[in-house]
Each structure stands twice: as structure tokens, then as C-alpha cells.
Design goal:
There is one protein chain. The chain has about 950 residues and is an alpha+beta fold. Helix content is about 15%, strand content about 40%. The strands form 17 sheets. Strands 1, 30, 31, 55, 56 and 57 form a six-stranded antiparallel beta sheet that branches. A five-stranded mixed beta sheet has the order 60-66-65-62-63, with no helix packed on it. A five-stranded mixed beta sheet has the order 67-68-69-71-70, covered by helices on one side. A hairpin with a 4-residue loop joins β28 (about 305-310) and β29. The two termini are about 110 Å apart.
């Protein structure tokens, strides 16, 4: 419907003239077509535009289409548009994309969302909207919209909705307002005569000339000049006048990429012009899609050309260096077996028996039937062919005077084979050599014997069924041959700089050493692959190789080989049969036509990674979350939509979210994370370019998924604190328990010690009371009084010492002295005693358990010395040795052996000694160092009174 409305705006009585197409061949671009089968809602398209973010926008009569390199998305009134039909696109300084609808209302794509302009109601009230297709706008950085239409005023609406009139209605004038490179215009002409035009820039108005102003208007500033499409014609404004560029076809679009001007025509395609500033003329560079009505052109940031049409959707040219052979206006899709050339004269062989010139006069030779293994071989300035096979009289370039079937030309000679007589011929100027091959039959090696290379008068190499064989022809082929390369080999080709090359589509490329008859892999470091389709040597001595990876161009300099690769993804067909190159133009004969490539002008691939992020959507329980850097722990799904600003290339990439994660390869436009684990995510993407090399990874997006609340750091910290507190409490209770246990144990030991001391005191008291009783019995009252005084003193000392664990040496000395004096009085001074105690060399602090030495002194007196009637001696000494306090008790009594014997005979129990031993065990439990007691005889030679020496070792407190 819209198409007819637009066409109705053009001149009435328009007649379409169709020029007859010649049968000449042509080279057309490899157009990639996008229509309703590829994602567009309609084939009627009005404008195409790539915004700064890389998104491609296509306006149709059934909505706006956004293309991100992966997918098409259509916007209509149901998801944000003000009108399904939109004719113009404008991108503001903030990157928002604006659309002018057929109804005059605006829509804007902002922050990833399409929505109607919020002040459309102002436009509806102020302007006669509803069918206005001639609106133009400009949006400032602060969000103000400058809006102009035909026969109406020009206004500015700021972001708060305030309206400012920039130009009021003026009858019979046209006004153009320039804002940077954008033009807003308004036409108030009510007549069909030339109308005065004014140009407004920086607040100033200039007279611009007069022009017939009607129909659709487009204005472009190109290389400093203003071009205007108006009334289905094209004008140039300079020197305050409008120059018309006459054309028999109606102009319906005007675009510029800064270098070229693109003019779209109704039913005559689009023409690319170069502007000659000197002559003020347009120079035609190229004519595209001559049968279509082109409504707009856009060159994307990678150099691809996008063309919208009114009837066939969108066409895209990825690279103008690639063209496809067409015949009578239609692309050739037949299987092309061979292609050969003699300099710029190129001939293709559709199948053996049909040849086509690709140069004037573009003659076609169709024999009508197949000629086995027949081909045109370039030799000198002509093409060689076998005699009496076809009539080549109308092709002066063909020399069919050869008796044999030409196989290849090498230098100044041409070599061929006669299958009827099995002979190889070599023609060099006026000379001719013939080599008989009949003797080859005796070897019975299977093969067609058609693909070979001859080394004159030496050997011949044949490609047979089982590989490459070398035959020695110096001995008339009597018996000498060698299989130098086994396997299925396709062909042999020779060049003086590169040598003899054998290639196979399953084994790769090999170089054959002619002299030594050996084969080795050709340039393995180049990684050419195993699938070699064909090779060709050009006039610059370069080697072209068609492989499964694409086209390799090899150059040799100073013995080193350098290579360039043209990816197979750029080719119209990967099924290459043959190729030819001259002056950097590469011709490929494929199973679906012929492709010509301007190799040096092939567009370079973008070096930057073209993958970017369009949107991130996160869901929890099917509820959409706001985009954030941190997502909650219960996030169920994260969907990351990607775009590829390299719109006309492949979409293969790999991604990962962590450095230690394995790369994931994909060609989809969305990355999905289901039930993401908690932690930090850094999305890195690497792009696979056309050389099959991965780009440097680029970080696109970082986010974090929170831990479950019980696993967050503050909860973990709380757990740790609680554990530490619990551990502290347990440890404290354990320590308290241990301390209490140790206290109780020590207390028990102390009580036990005190109890033992208490046991010893009654024992001593009992003995002392017996002595006092003895004194009183024998009326020794004076001695009894002295004894009682000393006894009382000793009791006080004992009671005082029994309440402490350790006493000083001085205290122990006084106690022992009083005790010994009491015992001396008791036994009538039968012994004398001496105590050595040098306090200067002894510890002054408490270091000796009370009453520990007394039992040993008591034993020395009671069981040693009292057996003597006179001359008894008791000696005590306190000294420090080996970090221990030692006390020596020595007597000259009957000795410890005799004493023990008498105790056994009398069944006497020594409670003092027993108590002391138990005290030592108790004290041992409290000290790390041992309490030791050693006992020995003083004089073993004295049988009656050997004496006893006891040494008690007491550890000094630390």
C-alpha cells in the first residue's frame, strides 16, 4: 500500500523505459539478500542506518527492524512505535535513535528500549499530523527536539515540554536550518513556480537561490557542498543557485559516506558518484541493482554496503573486491571446469566442449558434445589446441595447428601427448622432439597416462592410479622407473622458481626433487592443510594455492616464503575447480560459476573484537530483575544478549566467565546462565576471524551473584566469632576444670603431706614424753626442766612449719638442732654432733620441706649411735650440688645393714622412715626433678661400727 502512496507522489504520467540488455557478460557483486525469508516483516524497505553502537536499523512499511549481527528484531506499535510506517532515522549526540513516522509522530530507541516520544501529544496539537511524511528533526545533546514540516512552522521542544518557535509561517519561501551536519527544513510554497530558498546557520539567514520544491525532499552535505533531492530530481547548491543534474530516471534517495555520493533511482537501481569539485560534475563510479528501486544506502563501519529497495528488501555487499560472472544479466551458476588466460584474455570451459571468452567480443564456442580432456592452453600470445578437433576460425586467439593434445606450456616450449600413438611431443620454436611411450605398457601400471611432466632427454613424471612415477627415458624406458609418491594425486605443475609441485585433495601439497626423484611435504610450516584443490603460477612468479581453508598467495624472496590467506568464508563457492590470476585479479572457476577477486583491494578485517553486549536480563522465579552488578542468591537465570558490529561476517566466538574456566565456543546471539553459582563473573569473549585466528579476549561484563544469606561474609564472620567464643568458653571451662583438678590434686597432696607430717609429730612427741618421764622417774628434775623447755620450743617450730610446704634452711637447721639436743639429753650424751651450714652458699628462700631430714637423723641416733656406750658422732652438712640442695647425715653407729637385721629379728616397724618415703613420693608428684635418697656405709672395714652415710637430694624450686 505504502509503495503506491510513495509512487503517487512522483510526477504524473511517469513512463518506465526498459533498455534492452545485451548478451554480453558482466561482473556483478556478491549480493547477500535479506527479505521476508530472512527475518524482515516486509520487502518494502525505506531506509537503512547503522548507529554508533553498531546496531543496524531497517525501516519497512510493517515496522522497524533492528539487526545486531545475530538476529533480526521487529518493533511495531505493539512494542513501542508510534507508527508502523517510518521514513527517516536520526541519531542524537547521546546515541539515542529517533524515527519519524508516517503520521508525523516520533519514536525513540533509548537505553535498549523502544518507546514513543513523550511529547507526541504536543506535536499532535500543534501540527496537522496524521499523514505528514515530510517531517525533519534534529535532537540536541540536552534532549531538545527541533521539529519541522511542510507548510508549518519550525519549533524546538525541550526535555520539559516547553515549546520555542524558531520560524513562523512565511508564504512562498523555503527554509533550511543547519544543526551540525543535520538539516531541518520547512516549505511554505503554495505555487508551482520556483520558490525562494533561505539557509539558516548559527543564527544567520542567507539567500540560497530558487528551486522548484515539491515531493519528497532529501538534503546531504557532501565534501562541503549541499546536494538536494527534490521533485524526483537531484540538485547541487553553490553560488546561491541550484544546479540540476539531468537524468531520465526518477531520483528517490540520496546518501553520502563522505567519499562517494549515492543516488537511488526508481526502477534503475543506485549509482555511486565521485564529485568533481572543479567541474562541479558527478562522475559515475558504479551502478548497482539496475532493476530495483533503491530507497537508501548505508556503509557500515566495516565497509559493507547495505541497500534498501521498495520491492525486494535489503541487499548487502560485503566487499566490492568480489564480483560474480553474469551472462545476459543473470549470474552464471553452471559448473566451470577450467579457466585459463593469456594475460588479460581469459577463457573459461563450462565443460569440455563449451568455451566462453571473458573479454571482448565475448565469443562463446559450444561444440555440443564432450571432447575428452580437451582444453585451451595459453602459449605465447595465443591459445594452443589440437588440430582437426573444432573449427576455431572465428577465434583468432586459438592456434589449432598442433598434432598432439597440448598439456602445458613451459618457457619457450609446449608439451602435449598423442593418445592414439602413446607419444609425448615437445615443440620448441621450429624444433620438435617426440618420445615414444609404448614400452610403458610392459610395466602394467594402471592409470590414464594423461597428467605428466617431461624433463627432455632425461625422465618423465606421470600421475597414475597409485601415485607419482618417474620413468627414465634415457634408456628408452627399458626397465627403469620409480614410485616416488604414493597415494591419490590430482596433478603435477612446474615453475622454474618453485620446481615441480604435486597436489592432492586428500594428502596435501608436495615438492618433487626432479634430480633425486624424491618427494617431500611442501612448506609444512605454512599449515596449508591436506585438501589442496588446485595451484597456479602467475606472471609475477607467485604461487596461488586453493585449499580447504581458502586461497593462499605465496611469495618467495631470498629463499624465504611469505603467505597471505583469503578465507574460504569470503568466497561465493568453496568448490574450486581451477583458477587463474593476472595483474592481481584472481579468477576462480567453481561448481557454481566464476568469481573474480581484486586481491589487493580485498577489505581488511576489523582488528578489534566486534562482539558487544546488547542487554542483560536476570530472572528469579520468572520475575525480571533490574540490571545490576550484584544479583541476589536466588537468581534462576541470566540471559546476556550479544551483538556483532561486524555485521557482514561470521558470528563465531568463544567465551568464559573465569580465567580458570574452559572456553565455550558458540555462534548464538545469546549466552545463558542457568542457576548460576555464587561468586564473581567476568565475561570474556574472543572472536574467530576469517583467518581462523582467535582475537585477544575482551571483557564485556562483570557481575556478582550473592551467596545465600547464611553463607555471606558477615554470617561467616559471625559463625567464626561464635565458634571462637564457644571454643574460648570450652577452653576456659577445660582450663578451669584442669586447674580445679590440679588444685584438688595439689590440695590432696598437700593435705596428704600435712597428714604425714601430722603422723610423724605424734611419733616424735611420744618418744619425747617417754624421755621426760624417764627424767622424772630418776628424779633428774633439772634435766627434765631443760628438756621440757627445748621440747616446747621444738613443738612450736614443728607446728609453725607444718602449715607450709617449704621452709628455709635456717629454719630447718634450728629445728634439727633442737631435736638433736633433746635426743642427746635423752641418751645421756652418748654421742656428739656437728652441723655444717654455710648460709652464704645456700639458698635463702624456702627450699626444703619441713621435717623431711628429721626421720633420717632419728634413724641415725636410735638405730645407729645408741648401740654405742661412748664415742658416738653425728655429722650433718647442707650444701648445693648439681642444682639441688643436698643434706648429708653421717654417723659411726652399727651401720644400716646391722640395724635392718635387728629390726627384722624384733619385728620392729619404723613409722618415721615409712612416713618419710610416702612424703617423698608425694613430693615427687609435684616436682619435675626427682627427690633422691642414697645410703652407704662409712667404713666397711670396721665390722662392729661401720657407720652410715645418708644423702638426701632435694630439687631447688625453679
Amino acid at each position: 500500500m505504502i509503495r503506491y502512496i510513495l509512487w503517487g507522489l512522483f510526477l504524473a504520467g511517469f513512463t518506465l523505459s526498459v533498455s534492452a540488455q545485451s548478451n554480453r557478460i558482466s561482473w556483478d557483486y556478491n549480493y547477500k539478500h535479506f527479505g521476508i525469508d530472512n527475518g524482515l516483516p516486509s520487502s518494502e524497505t525505506y531506509q537503512v542506518y547503522q548507529d554508533r553502537s553498531g546496531l543496524l536499523w531497517i525501516l519497512t512499511d510493517r515496522g522497524i527492524v533492528r539487526y545486531d549481527g545475530f538476529r533480526f528484531k521487529t518493533y511495531t506499535v505493539e512494542n513501542g512505535l508510534s507508527d508502523n510506517v517510518n521514513f527517516r532515522i536520526h541519531e542524537d549526540p547521546n546515541g539515542n535513535v529517533w524515527f519519524i513516522g508516517y503520521n508525523g509522530l516520533l519514536s525513540v530507541y533509548e537505553d535498549g528500549e523502544m518507546k514513543p516520544y513523550r511529547f507526541n501529544s504536543i506535536l499532535q496539537k500543534r501540527f496537522f499530523t496524521g499523514h505528514n511524511i515530510f517531517a525533519s528533526i534534529y535532537v540536541t545533546k540536552d534532549g531538545s527536539v527541533v521539529y519541522g514540516t511542510n507548510r508549518e512552522e519550525i519549533v524546538s521542544i525541550n526535555k520539559k515540554g516547553k515549546v520555542t518557535v524558531l520560524l513562523k509561517k512565511l508564504i512562498d519561501t523555503i527554509h533550511f536550518f543547519e544543526f551540525e551536519n543535520q538539516i531541518v527544513f520547512s516549505n511554505y510554497s503554495m505555487t508551482n513556480k520556483p520558490t525562494t530558498a533561505f539557509f539558516h546557520r548559527n543564527g544567520k539567514r542567507f539567500f540560497w537561490g530558487k528551486i522548484y520544491f515539491n515531493g519528497t525532499v532529501r538534503l546531504k552535505k557532501h565534501q562541503g557542498y549541499y546536494f538536494i533531492m527534490c521533485g524526483r530530481s537531484l540538485f547541487l547548491n553553490y553560488d546561491r543557485k541550484f544546479k540540476l543534474f539531468p537524468d531520465t530516471h526518477e531520483v528517490i534517495s540520496l546518501d553520502s559516506d563522505g567519499e562517494f555520493l549515492y543516488v537511488g533511482y526508481y526502477k534503475n537501481g543506485m549509482k555511486k558518484y565521485r564529485f568533481d569539485k572543479t567541474r562541479k560534475q558527478l562522475v559515475l563510479v558504479q551502478h548497482y541493482l539496475s532493476e530495483h528501486s533503491v530507497s537508501s544506502v548505508c556503509k557500515d563501519r566495516n565497509g559493507g554496503l547495505w541497500i534498501t529497495t521498495l520491492e525486494k528488501g535489503v541487499f548487502m555487499i560485503s566487499d566490492e573486491a568480489f564480483t560474480q560472472l553474469s551472462y545476459t544479466g543473470k549470474p552464471v551458476k553452471e559448473d566451470i571446469r577450467f579457466i585459463n588466460g593469456n594475460k588479460s584474455k581469459v577463457i573459461i570451459t563450462y565443460y569440455v566442449g563449451k568455451w566462453q571468452q571473458l573479454y571482448p567480443p565475448y565469443l562463446l564456442k559450444d561444440y555440443g558434445k564432450t571432447l575428452l580432456w580437451s582444453n585451451l592452453i595459453p602459449y605465447r600470445d595465443r591459445f594452443a589446441f589440437q588440430k582437426n578437433q573444432l573449427d576455431w576460425s572465428d577465434w583468432p586467439e586459438v592456434d589449432d595447428s598442433y598434432e598432439f593434445k597440448p598439456h602445458y606450456a613451459s618457457g619457450s616450449s609446449i608439451v602435449g601427448i598423442r593418445l592414439d600413438s602413446y607419444k609425448v611431443d615437445e615443440v620448441r620454436d621450429s624444433s620438435r622432439e617426440v618420445f615414444d611411450l609404448h614400452t610403458l605398457h610392459k610395466f602394467k601400471i594402471p592409470g590414464p597416462y594423461l597428467r605428466f611432466y617431461l624433463v627432455p632427454h632425461k625422465k618423465i613424471f606421470f600421475v597414475l592410479n597409485e601415485g607419482v612415477f618417474a620413468f627414465d627415458i634415457r634408456s628408452s624406458l627399458k626397465s627403469s622407473y620409480k614410485n616416488i609418491l604414493k597415494g591419490r594425486i590430482s596433478q603435477l605443475k612446474y615453475h622454474k622458481d618453485w620446481g615441480l609441485i604435486a597436489f592432492s585433495n586428500v594428502q596435501g601439497l608436495f615438492k618433487i626433487d626432479i634430480e633425486h626423484e624424491k618427494a617431500r611435504e611442501f612448506a609444512p610450516d605454512l599449515n596449508l592443510g591436506k585438501q589442496i584443490l588446485t595451484v597456479f603460477f602467475d606472471e609475477q612468479n607467485r604461487l596461488w594455492i586453493a585449499s580447504g581453508k581458502g586461497i593462499h598467495l605465496l611469495t618467495k624472496k631470498n629463499g624465504k616464503i611469505s603467505a597471505k590467506l583469503l578465507s574460504r568464508d569470503l568466497l561465493s563457492s568453496r568448490e574450486i575447480n581451477d583458477m587463474y590470476s593476472y595483474e592481481n585479479l584472481l579468477y576462480l572457476a567453481t561448481k557454481s560459476g566464476v568469481q573474480k577477486i581484486d586481491f589487493l583491494n580485498v577489505k581488511k578485517e576489523m582488528s578489534a573484537n566486534p562482539i558487544n553486549i546488547l542487554s542483560v536480563r536476570a530472572f528469579t522465579k520468572n520475575k525480571l530483575l533490574n540490571v545490576a552488578e550484584i544479583y541476589p542468591a536466588k537468581t534462576d537465570l541470566i540471559r546476556i544478549a550479544l551483538g556483532n558490529i561486524d555485521l557482514n561476517r561470521r558470528n563465531v566466538y568463544r567465551y568464559r566467565f573465569r580465567k580458570d574456566q574452559t572456553w565455550t565456543k558458540s555462534d548464538k546471539g545469546e549466552i545463558t546462565l542457568s542457576d548460576p553459582a555464587d561468586g564473581k563473573y567476568n565475561l570474556e569473549v574472543a572472536y574467530l576471524n576469517l583467518n581462523n585466528e582467535w582475537s585477544k579476549p575482551k571483557q564485556l561484563f562483570s557481575f556478582e551473584v550473592e551467596k545465600i544469606i547464611f553463607l555471606r561474609w558477615y554470617f561467616i564472620l559471625l559463625y567464626v566469632v561464635l565458634i571462637v567464643i564457644l571454643f574460648y568458653i570450652i577452653l576456659k571451662l577445660s582450663i578451669q576444670s584442669v586447674n580445679k583438678k590440679n588444685y584438688m590434686l595439689n590440695r590432696m597432696m598437700e593435705l596428704e603431706r600435712m597428714a604425714l607430717a601430722a603422723q610423724m609429730n605424734p611419733h616424735f612427741i611420744f618418744n619425747s614424753l617417754n624421755s621426760i618421764h624417764s627424767f622424772l622417774l630418776y628424779e633428774e628434775n633439772e634435766n627434765a626442766e631443760k628438756y621440757l623447755v627445748r621440747f616446747a620450743k621444738l613443738i612450736r617450730q614443728t607446728l609453725a612449719n607444718s602449715r607450709v610446704s617449704y621452709i628455709t634452711i635456717e629454719e630447718e637447721y634450728d629445728t634439727l638442732k633442737n631435736y638433736i639436743l633433746l635426743e642427746s639429753m635423752r641418751f645421756k650424751q652418748v654421742f656428739s654432733f656437728r652441723i655444717d651450714c654455710d648460709y652464704r652458699q645456700l639458698p635463702s628462700s624456702p627450699c626444703i620441706p619441713p621435717m623431711l631430714i628429721q626421720p633420717y637423723v632419728e634413724n641415725a641416733i636410735l638405730h645407729g649411735l645408741v648401740k654405742r656406750t661412748s664415742g658416738g658422732e653425728l655429722y650433718l652438712k647442707f650444701y648445693v650440688e648439681d642444682e639441688a640442695l643436698k643434706v648429708m647425715i653421717r654417723d659411726n653407729g652399727v651401720g644400716y645393714s646391722e640395724s635392718r637385721k635387728k629390726k627384722r629379728d624384733s619385728n620392729h616397724k619404723s613409722y618415721g622412715t615409712q612416713i618419710t618415703e610416702e612424703r617423698l613420693k608425694s613430693l615427687q608428684g609435684k616436682n619435675k626433678q626427682a627427690f633422691t635418697v642414697s645410703m652407704s656405709s662409712v667404713d666397711d672395714s670396721n665390722q662392729e661400727f661401720p657407720g652410715t652415710c645418708v644423702i638426701v637430694s632435694i630439687p631447688l624450686p625453679g
